[in-house]
Design a protein that fits this description.
It is built from four helices and seven strands. It is of the alpha/beta class. The chain starts with a helix and ends in a 5-residue tail after the last strand. A five-stranded mixed β-sheet has the order 4-3-2-5-6, covered by helices on one side. Strands 1-7 form a two-stranded parallel ribbon.
Length: about 140
């Protein structure tokens, strides 16, 4: 009788219920998908000047880059100063976003002023320029 009781206990199978763990993984996956922010880059590296009153970049914005050799880029493509207005107008048709001009510190003020004017002419209401905060490195 005692032997039979011991045998019955050893024959029990142990099941691990994975449903709660899979539910947690799906919840975490959905959380990361919904909270991921894709920041659009200009496609070139710009050596930005420093400023004492720098503020963080807005997440939804159009990034225009001006390189040290005064070429203008958007999304990795060279568009030139004349390409700024149609590019921004096209984007502003779908959403009201701010425009951020990332000018290299060696770019001339004249090119920056022309880019700013083209963005303003395109209808951009919020135009910012990108800098580094004091002590921030690239």
């Amino acid at each position: 009788m005692l032997k039979e009781t011991l045998r019955e206990d050893t024959e029990e199978t142990v099941d691990i219920n994975l449903s709660p763990m899979i539910d947690c993984i799906f919840i975490l996956l959905i959380f990361f998908i919904l909270t991921t922010v894709f920041v659009e880059e200009t496609g070139i590296a710009v050596n930005k000047p420093e400023a004492a009153t720098a503020v963080p970049l807005e997440q939804d914005s159009v990034l225009i880059a001006i390189s040290a050799d005064e070429r203008v880029y958007y999304a990795g493509r060279e568009i030139g100063v004349s390409g700024i207005r149609p590019t921004i107008q096209r984007i502003l048709l779908s959403s009201d976003v701010s425009v951020v001009i990332q000018a290299d510190k060696d770019a001339s003020h004249g090119v920056f002023a022309r880019a700013y004017g083209e963005a303003r002419a395109a209808g951009a209401k919020r135009i910012h320029f990108s800098t580094l905060a004091d002590g921030e490195t690239f």
